[in-house]
Amino acid sequence: MTALHPTSPGRVRTARVVVATLLAVLLTSLALPAHADGRASLVDIQVSVGRDGALRVEQTLTFTETPPAEVTQRVALRQNVLGDREHVYSVSDVTTSAGAAPQVEESGDALTITVPTQDASGPVTIGYTVRGATFALDEDTTQVRWRVLQGLSVSVDEVTGGVNLPGIAEDFQCLSGPPDVANPGVCRFSAAGTEDYPQPQFADGARGEGEVVLLQITIPTQAVAVTEQVERRWTLGGAFSADPLPLGAALGALLLGGLVLFALHRRAGRDASPGTPTRVAEFRPTGPGQSEFSLLVPVRPGQVGTVVDERVDPIDVTASLIDLAVRGHLRIVELPRAEEFARTDWLLVRRPGDEEQLAGFERALLTALTPAEGREGVLVSEIGPTIAAHIADVQSHLYDDVVSSGWFDHRPDSTRNVWGTAGVLALVVAVVATGVLVALTTFGLLGLALVALALGLCFVGQEMPARTPEGSNLLAGLSLLRSELQTHPTTQVPAGRELHELSEVLPYAIVLGGRDRWIDAIVDADEDGDADSTDLSWYHGPDHWHLHHLPESLKNFISTVSGNLFAR
């Protein structure tokens, strides 16, 4: 006989704990009240459709178990349609059979109805009136379409209902399912227009929380008025619609605006038709195989650049400095470098001379280069701060000179400013208009067209300065001079006067082209190997400087001065 082993004390304690826990859970569950499962056993929905298109919806919820503390229903006030449009509904006259008044809260696209139900002793009815749920299918037919069950916070075991119409239904459908499903299913039962069911009746099985039952009824328009409200829903694609009307408006605006810009430019910005080109200068023969540069029209290099591109550029002022030096009003002195790798600097020294024949811009330029007391000249490295207060005056004189000489009717800078301001204002207006069109309409493409036209006006405005007939003739003559400067032999200068004659051509070659070949001609005119630091009256180099250094010296001088002149 097998002896029984005594039970260990640890096992006894564990068993007691388990038994005690089970008893506690059992007693607690017995002590708690019955828990509401949040389900309505039946929802009966009665809809009354008025001749004015308003729908009165009465929903009666029956709970076989203890009802929840409250029931909420979210009624959609907006429903998307194909494209960028949506139907808009208005809900009013919310009522309930519960003791306390319902709480109604509208939040943009939905109306939330909250009904306290914890003290309800019987069925709970929620009612409301909706407008906007009748739609025109054609001239003679109205469709009543509404989700009679939607947005309930409780699930439903069974749905029944009926519709009272002021006429005979031509067609009736009852659909149900989740609210976001594309193709809802057919209700369990629906009938209308029969002997047994002259008015629409419907029934459906269990519906989950938030699910819908949708009724669609077709009825003659004379029986029920159309109340649909359709609003445009903003989308980026809709704002820039390519439908025929918005697209046509944009293309039409571009075409018409382009024609207007073209007409404006032809009328205000087109140069007068040139006649006979004005010969600005010529290489006049002085002997067999020799010629000298002779100016036929008193136009200085700075004015040449302004007539050609209608602007006062740094190169125009730099060429004017060299021209003043060649004519004896300045001397450019290249200074020896303080260290091997130091930057090259130059001293601009004013020379005495008759300044009565100088143009206004030339006098303004010389005034800007007047050295401080006790100094011989002005360093190029300091020319920026020195000339900053005078450069606007130099430019203004240049613009005045081209007008007083009859080459322009109006100052090119003033003309550009007027049209540029008009272009900026037009751009601001176009941007604002585009914002409004994009936000409120489908004509965003029209706004883009307006912006493009405003930008076009800004561009065309820079081309508006128009030359007079004299200016057009001068421009044609300058084109001829440019060709001559780039092709005329540089060796056909009078013997013994090479440096002077070639130097006179150089400022014009700087602004019109061909500079390097004329500088090389000056270098080739040097026939000895001695230092040439002072051979040029207008350009002096440091000790041991030769004319063959001139190309690099002038290249550095022009780039340095052009940069420093307009430095801020």
From TrEMBL:
Protein name: Predicted membrane protein
Domain DUF2207: 42-172
Keyword Transmembrane set for record: yes
Predicted membrane protein YciQ-like C-terminal domain span: 293-521
Organism: Auraticoccus monumenti
Signal sequence coordinates: 1-36
Signal in keyword set: yes
Segments passing through the bilayer: 245-264, 418-437, 443-460
InterPro entries in the record: DUF2207, YciQ-like_C
Keywords, ordered alphabetically: Membrane, Signal, Transmembrane, Transmembrane helix
Pfam families, A to Z: DUF2207, DUF2207_C
